[in-house]
From TrEMBL:
It holds the Pfam family OCD_Mu_crystall. InterPro entries: NAD(P)-bd_dom_sf, ODC_Mu_crystall, ODC_N. Belongs to the ornithine cyclodeaminase/mu-crystallin family. Signal peptide: none annotated. Keywords: NAD. The keyword Ribonucleoprotein does not apply. This is Ornithine cyclodeaminase.
């Protein structure tokens, strides 16, 4: 028997992992990626409206825990996310996340949701959205270096948003590549498993790197990258963790989300602080140029930024109006008199004693 019925302002919509999966399956992965990319682009185009700050990070030898907040003045969103590469050894995810969207006027949350799946979707959607502006015209082949949890989302996003038809996969862990090949069967892509990074590069106009080890690494050496390609570097995302040889950066035109964060966490942590970069929102709004020649190497040094999670939360909140894929959590105290929180506890105690 319940002692207390939640008040009308107690309940907050919550999307569980199961409900998130159901929404994505019912909607379709590719449709979800395309729609999500539209929300991300819309928010990049109104970049000046957002509060912006580098994410708040707590680093340890094994990983990082981060908070990623932002607001557009009407809504406030934040994501809690970790990155622990060693987790795979114990059967855990490298990245897990949850997030909250709130109303600025009242401070009340309007949505609480899992964001492990949602982050995978928004990361892939952002990658392909940016490539729409930077990749060579008519690009059809992508090399996917690093075939972990993010790889299939990346491949399908580039198919749905950029029109690629072939992915060439490589991972130092053969089982990861086998997993990605298996998952991508029947998805409308020509999937090629490769035995080396060099083999994966053959014929690729787009190169995506997405590895997990928390270290300075050389996933791409300078001689692997020819003219005219677009590099989508998404694995380097914390201090001391990179994937590209420094010489590649010096040959590339570099595009970033938020320079103050990327200079700490991205590939450009290898370069002087005044090395020129272009903010991707400026390309989307026409303030800055994207790809300007067939021989240009474009590099999206992506570390993920809070506005992308805000867009994902905003998108999911809109989708829930169609799908009703949420539970209602008794999360906020709602006493009869807003000034009498203590009295609410007292009345609960008396009701408990009466049972």
């Amino acid at each position: 028997m319940s002692l207390s019925k939640p008040g009308p302002m107690s309940l907050v919509p919550f999307v569980s992992v199961e409900n998130m999966m159901r929404i994505v399956v019912e909607r379709g992965v590719e449709r979800t990626l395309v729609e999500l990319a539209d929300y991300i682009e819309e928010d990049f185009r109104r970049w000046p409206q957002f509060d912006k700050t580098p994410r708040i990070a707590a680093h340890s030898p094994d990983g990082v825990i981060e908070l990623m907040p932002t607001s557009d003045g009407r809504s406030y969103g934040f994501k809690y996310v970790n990155g622990h590469p060693k987790n795979v050894r114990s059967g855990r995810q490298t990245v897990t996340a949850f997030g909250v969207l709130s109303d600025v006027d009242t401070g009340y949350p309007v949505l609480l949701t899992e964001m492990t799946i949602l982050t995978a979707l928004r990361t892939a959607a952002t990658s392909a959205l940016v490539a729409k502006y930077l990749a060579p015209k008519g690009a059809k082949v992508m090399a996917m270096i690093g075939n972990g949890a993010q790889s299939e989302f990346q491949c399908l996003a580039f198919k749905a948003i950029c029109g690629i038809d072939t992915v060439r996969l490589f991972d130092i862990d053969v089982k990861a590549t086998e997993k990605a090949v298996r998952n991508l069967q029947g998805k409308g892509l020509n999937v090629v498993a490769c035995k080396s990074g060099e083999e994966a590069m053959e014929g690729a106009q787009i190169i995506t790197t997405c590895t997990a080890d928390k270290q300075f690494a050389t996933i791409l050496s300078d001689n692997m990258v020819g003219p005219g390609v677009h590099i989508n570097a998404i694995g380097g995302d914390c201090p001391g963790k990179t994937e590209l040889h420094r010489d590649i950066l010096l040959r590339s035109d570099i595009f970033v989300e938020y320079p103050e964060q990327t200079r700490i966490e991205g590939e450009i942590q290898q370069l002087p602080e005044d090395h020129p970069v272009t903010e991707i929102w400026q390309v989307m709004t026409g303030v800055a140029a994207g790809r300007t020649s067939d021989k240009q190497i474009t590099l999206f040094d992506s570390v993920g930024f809070a506005t992308e999670d805000f867009s994902a939360l905003r998108y999911l909140n809109a989708v829930l109006k169609e799908h009703q894929g949420q539970q209602m959590l008794d999360m906020l105290a709602d006493p009869d008199d807003p000034r009498d929180l203590f009295g609410m506890i007292e009345r609960y105690g008396k009701a408990a004693e009466a049972l």
